[in-house]
Amino acid sequence: MRTPSTRTDPNPRRRRPRRWLVAGGLLVGLGLLMLFALRSPPSPVGYFTSAASQDRFLAAYKRAMADMPQPDRTLDLRTSYGVVRVYHFAGAAPAAIPLLLLPGRASASPVWADNMSALLGVRSLYTIDLLGEPGMSIQSRPITSAEDHARWLHEVLLALPESKVHLFGMSIGGWTAINLAVRQPEKIASVTVLDPIMTFNNLSVEAIVRSLPASVRWFPKAWRDSFASWTANGAPVEDVPEAVMIEAGMQSYALKLSGPVRITEEQLTALNIPVLAIIAGASGMHNSAEGAETARRLLNPGEVKVYPQASHAINGEYPNEIAADISGFLSRIEP
């Protein structure tokens, strides 16, 4: 496997997103809407719909992982809700608290390919395949509430050797991080969220409407690609390894878990963990100005940054800027 090199761009604010893949992109339709009404009944946990579908996804996952650096450890951690796949990547400041990265819906660890080089210059990293999503994690118990989402992730943190971790989540991964922090914060040193959904405000009506076709596995592939492209403000997604993996997961994996429930203002106000909220100013998923205002008003301690031209695919559009902001944030909150 090869380690992606740091790309330069004379105009980084207009960098074309390649592997952003789904800072949530495929994220919404999959979990929040009709998918749950349309899902088939046979199993109470997520599953691949056929052996051929699983083989297709695994091949796409393997290809997408080729764009990641080589992990020095691969962990399969058993929780009450299933086995969770975690990768560890040794980076800068090995004695410092590591970052644990939570991807968007249906995107799994390879979604971070564009971010790895810059982030490894900040800290050692863990990446995780969300439980109940297409990936290498295997769900074995129903996940039916926000409490369930928090419990399985808390059990993952308890299984890690470090006494604390910094959580970093994009899109639904941002919601997952905050959802844990407001319920079981014991091992969390800080939280960074990247254009999180259902955290500081609700989804936009347009996001809900556009996600409907992407929510149905048997609809044409072009409809899922169209939704993914929309989340990146029109950027093409065909033939990008991470996009191919995500589309394969959307088409072949039956989700069986509850969607994210809006984090309440009372929960955010009571949160006593440093939070860095990075908001995509041009995201179609929600009203970015409203979300940023809510975050500034409620997070204490907290910092809020808005990238005015960023889409919901912000992680692949601004990888170096994001890493620099995280590095500065950690330097301010750590002794």
TrEMBL record:
<keyword id="KW-0812">Transmembrane</keyword>
<keyword id="KW-1133">Transmembrane helix</keyword>
<dbReference type="Pfam" id="PF00561">
    <property type="entry name" value="Abhydrolase_1"/>
</dbReference>
<keyword id="KW-0472">Membrane</keyword>
<keyword id="KW-0378">Hydrolase</keyword>
<protein>
    <submittedName>
        <fullName>Alpha/beta hydrolase</fullName>
    </submittedName>
</protein>
<dbReference type="InterPro" id="IPR029058">
    <property type="entry name" value="AB_hydrolase_fold"/>
</dbReference>
<dbReference type="InterPro" id="IPR000073">
    <property type="entry name" value="AB_hydrolase_1"/>
</dbReference>
<dbReference type="GO" id="GO:0016787">
    <property type="term" value="F:hydrolase activity"/>
</dbReference>
<feature type="transmembrane region" description="Helical">
    <location>
        <begin position="20"/>
        <end position="38"/>
    </location>
</feature>
<feature type="domain" description="AB hydrolase-1">
    <location>
        <begin position="98"/>
        <end position="206"/>
    </location>
</feature>
<dbReference type="InterPro" id="IPR050266">
    <property type="entry name" value="AB_hydrolase_sf"/>
</dbReference>
